[in-house]
Design brief:
The strands form seven sheets. The chain has a six-stranded mixed beta sheet with strand order 12-11-15-16-18-17, with helices on one face. A four-stranded mixed beta sheet has the order 1-2-5-4, sandwiched between helices. The chain has a four-stranded antiparallel beta sheet with strand order 3-6-7-8. It is of the alpha+beta class. It has four domains: 161 residues, Methyltransferase, Cobalt-precorrin-4 Transmethylase, Domain 2 (2-Layer Sandwich); 246 residues, Heat Shock Protein 90, CATH 3.30.565; 66 residues, no CATH class; 68 residues, Orthogonal Bundle (Arc Repressor Mutant, subunit A). Helices cover 39% and strands 18% of the residues.
């Protein structure tokens, strides 16, 4: 009898009980092997053990060329349905999903958790295949199956999976008909100078290398062929068209009181700098607390901006046929590329010595590294964070809420004066504390451990989730709104408004007065003017818009 798991079993997210029963019947008819695991789990199941099974089955599905594998709970080793009480309720299911996503690298989760009510309650947990080219680990360890046994993933199997990445690297593919004539001369000269600066041990020899030899030594060509990566970095404007229907384009988009846009294409070795020069990088002044000494800095650090753009270029999913978008707001830059955050979590590269094990576009990444566009040890995110911290501005952050995009935010304006004061006064604070404090000033949640640590240092106040930088620090910054009540920063008020708009869709002036009057406290004499100033500020920053009349404003979030 053929193994029913040798072909893909698909279950829709809204699967009927009949569909689930048919799936279970097929799984019960199979032998328990690399792609299916039955567990009794009458009441509970060890979630760390479940994570090990998850990654083992994900790796085996990858090796078998299958989309999914299965963990079936409520069935014992004799294939008898015994039922399970495990994972009842949405809260428990959400907790399990978070647990699995946090423990796996690259981060992954169940494709579906399906409840079947048959002779007893059965859970069918749908495990997605590990990504091509990337073996999946659980808390740093790799697992596989040997028959019905959970075992470490062998080096041979790891190598088999990793080799998929080279074969599947879009950027390493030769471009048909492309020659040296398709490369921009200025970009070639720039590549030589940057390669020489990065590799001084061969700087004297580089001048004697022909173009073909230089390109091969700099990992810009593959076996003498012009690749998609070569065109992306060095190709002329016309050569960029040879990548069609895939898009080789980064768009700068200006949003605010002034609007504009410009599309940049190949060669990106030159044109990422040309894009940077479009950004309005004005000087801003930061006043040190209790002094009249002002720190003058540019809104954005050149190295940080280029590092962020180059990271988006290196990690873009080019098979999606989408452009990279750099949006310039009044107070921040937003850089969006297609594809999930590739390995781990952004904060791992700030607070630990994590080094990435793999890349979405390894050939392009190696080429960019050879000409000094990026570094490949994972230090870029930490350096961007440190440079921003040393400039007393909010830390860069990532919005990963959409798994198909990575959205990077770089701030060019103070969000909360109290936070800026902490950076000026407490140069001894570790990055972990600054990261947590930065999330507080932005109205984002922090975990219990960070919350307790910041409270002990009297850096934060308030009751979760409405935390804010300590009033003592705010007072030092001269930003207390009242001597009788503790102050809340404009950031808190803006967050409160945006939360209300997200929950209710819109708000009238009367709605917002009712929402904020008590929160303003006694120290603000003209609350109406305070609210008007807040709304004007948020509108100019592109956070909200008025869809009503001047006399009867109706506010909505953008």
């Amino acid at each position: 009898m053929s193994d029913p798991t040798s072909s893909v079993i698909r279950v829709s997210h809204s699967a009927s009980q009949r569909e689930l029963q048919e799936t279970l019947n097929r799984l019960l008819a199979s032998r328990e092997g690399p792609l299916v695991e039955f567990k009794e789990a009458k009441r509970q199941f060890d979630e760390d053990k479940l994570g090990r099974y998850f990654t083992a089955l994900a790796n085996e599905a990858n090796l078998a060329g299958q989309e999914v594998a299965w963990i079936v709970l409520g069935v014992d080793n004799s294939r008898t349905i015994v039922g399970t009480d495990y994972l009842r309720g949405e809260k428990n299911e959400r907790t399990l999903r978070d647990h699995i996503e946090q423990g796996t690298r690259p981060g992954s989760g169940f494709r579906g958790i399906h409840e079947l009510l048959t002779h007893g309650r059965v859970l069918l947990l749908e495990v997605p295949s590990a990504p091509r080219g990337i073996p999946m680990s659980w808390k740093g360890h790799y697992y596989a199956r040997d028959g019905e046994t959970l075992v470490p993933l062998s080096l041979d199997k790891q190598d088999t999976i990793r080799r998929q990445k080279i074969d599947n690297d879009w950027t390493a593919v030769p471009v048909p008909g492309a020659t040296i004539k398709d490369l921009d001369e200025k970009a070639l000269a720039k590549a030589r100078s940057e390669f020489a600066a990065k590799h001084p041990e061969v700087a004297d020899d580089i001048a004697n290398w022909g173009t073909e030899e230089f390109l091969e030594r700099a990992r810009l060509t593959r076996d003498g062929c012009i690749t998609r990566a070569t065109i992306l970095l060095l190709g002329t404007y016309a050569a960029g068209g040879k990548l069609n229907p895939h898009m080789a384009q980064i768009t700068w988009h200006l949003v605010g009181q002034e609007e504009g846009y410009h599309h940049f294409t190949t060669p990106f070795l030159l044109n990422t700098t040309n894009l940077y020069q479009r950004i309005r990088n004005l000087e801003i002044k930061l006043l040190r607390p209790a002094t009249l000494i002002a720190e003058t800095v540019h809104k954005y650090d050149r190295w940080v901006v280029l590092e962020a753009i180059h990271n988006a270029l290196a990690h873009q999913d080019y098979t999606s046929r989408a452009r990279i978008i750099v949006t310039e707001y009044v107070d921040r830059l937003e850089i969006v590329n297609r594809g999930s955050f590739f390995e781990g979590r952004p904060e791992d590269y700030v607070t630990t010595d994590k080094v990435p094990e793999d890349y979405r576009n390894p050939f392009l990444v190696e080429a960019m590294a050879s000409v000094g566009m990026i570094e490949t040890m994972g230090f870029g995110i930490r350096k961007m964070t440190t440079l921003q911290r040393n400039r007393f501005l909010p830390l860069p952050d990532y919005d990963l809420s959409d798994p198909t995009h990575v959205k990077f935010n770089l701030y060019g304006r103070v969000v909360d004066e109290a936070y800026t004061t902490v950076l000026m006064e407490r140069s001894d604070l570790p990055l972990a504390d600054i990261l947590a404090l930065d999330r507080v000033q932005k109205g984002l949640p922090i975990n219990r451990v960070d919350r307790q640590r910041l409270r002990r240092q009297e850096l934060i106040e308030g009751r979760s989730p409405q935390l804010f930088v300590s009033a003592k620090i705010a007072q030092l910054a001269g930003s207390l709104a009242s001597t009788q009540t503790r102050a809340l920063s404009d950031t808190y008020f803006e967050k409160t408004i945006l939360t209300y708009l997200s929950q209710h869709g819109s708000a009238s002036r009367a709605d917002l007065e009712s929402l904020l009057w008590d929160k303003f406290g006694d120290g603000i004499d003209d609350k109406a003017a305070k609210l008007s100033n807040l709304l004007t500020k948020m509108r100019r920053r592109g956070r909200i818009r008025n869809v009503g009349s001047h006399a009867q404003a109706i506010w909505k979030a953008l």
